[in-house]
Amino acid sequence: MNDTTITNIPGYKAGTWTIDKAHSAVGFSIRHIMISKVKGTFDDFDATFVTGENPLDSVVTASAQVVSINTNDAARDGHLRTGDFFDAETYPTIDFVSTGVRQVKGEFLIDGNLTIKGVSKPATFEFEFGGFGGDPYGNYKFGATATTQVAREDFGLTYNAALETGGVLLGDKVTITLELQAALNV
Question: Of 11, 30, 58, 125, which residue has the fewest beta carbons closer than 10 angstroms?
Answer without folding.
Answer: 11
